[in-house]
């Protein structure tokens, strides 16, 4: 459920016509709904109300400060993957006691910063990283709380680029090596072992892979207990999918119903890292048709947004629904088109071979489900300034990130003296 819909022939975000946003901030732009963000957070958080838990929003999905502030105000923590994300989270007011830090390549500076901020725990991905964290913790005079990220070798049945819990993946520690690594970690003076973490992939549309993974992890928790290693937190990662097209992913409540019988009796605090399911359908990308082009083999609608603004179609072949902002336009005869951007790459498209009601130059379109992994994956390729982000709350439009200027494009660049 989201707050983007047609009303009296116009596409709205909450109480605001999208055309008004386009007029005020220009196109392309990202638009997020405050009401949807909150509803999605509480759908997830509320589904687990019977088990002690922390929702740590996976901020890699959308790390705008205002979005993080919304999450923090609702009681969310965050899952971070870099020093930059730690910086943003603290700036947005996320309590360090609800921050967990994942990622295969944390460097010493990032580890030290997280220790100084006193985050809840590190999700550790390798033997070498356990030792590195111990060394940094010793140097800053702290004890690091850690969970080991276990690779349960479960097929999440999603796109290979976003599968992370299989043997061939770079993520996590193999389940059969886990006990050995836990013992080693527990023996280190500046490490406190507190948790087990498992994240198997993203955009999962079934609960079975979650259940299979958790069964393996719960077995491990029993073994650890028998060895005197007392686990307090079980982190089930993120990964719940959303509807981009025809998918019928489980609801957070379905996930909770499926896993509660496996985890409720353990007396642990659950940590969860949902990203896409919170923000994905809370955001759209608004773009304007520039030109129509009839090719020899194909027809193209050339729009002002491109792969540098929304990379998912180019990178994963991802499907994003595209709706006309003027509802009337949606009733025109349909044509098969590619929706492409101005970037000089054949791979620059927002939709391929899409049957779409005829579009006219100057018309606005909404690229749906763009709130997760949208702006955060944007780049300046082709020296295109990154586009604004707007948060709608009721009748109000709040610009939460300005459109970049040409000066922003060259910020930090220098022409050395010998070239002057
Ligand atoms: N926890 C960990 C350890 C993760 O690696 C991820 C996502 C999440 C949580 C959040 O997963 P979510 O709930 O959002 O599915 N750029 C790709 C998605 C990459 C996901 C990376 N890890 C895309 O656009 O589909």
Automatic annotation (TrEMBL):
Residue ranges of every copy of the Orn/DAP/Arg decarboxylase 2 N-terminal domain listed in the record: 35-279
Keywords: Amino-acid biosynthesis, Decarboxylase, Lyase, Lysine biosynthesis, Pyridoxal phosphate
Name the record gives this protein: Diaminopimelate decarboxylase
Cofactor: pyridoxal 5'-phosphate
GO molecular function: diaminopimelate decarboxylase activity; pyridoxal phosphate binding
CDD domains: PLPDE_III_DapDC
The protein's enzyme class: lyase
Active site: 344 (proton donor)
The Orn/DAP/Arg decarboxylase 2 C-terminal domain, residue ranges: 29-371
Organism of origin: Nitrospira lenta
Function: Specifically catalyzes the decarboxylation of meso-diaminopimelate (meso-DAP) to L-lysine.
UniProt subunit comment: Homodimer.
Reaction(s) the record says it catalyses: meso-2,6-diaminopimelate + H(+) = L-lysine + CO2
KW Lyase (keyword) present: yes
N6-(pyridoxal phosphate)lysine found at: 60
Binding site for pyridoxal 5'-phosphate: 239, 273-276, 373
Entry annotated with the keyword RNA-binding: no
Ligand binding (substrate): 276, 312, 316, 345, 373
Similarity section: Belongs to the Orn/Lys/Arg decarboxylase class-II family. LysA subfamily.
Pathway assignment: Amino-acid biosynthesis; L-lysine biosynthesis via DAP pathway; L-lysine from DL-2,6-diaminopimelate: step 1/1
Enzyme Commission number, as recorded: 4.1.1.20
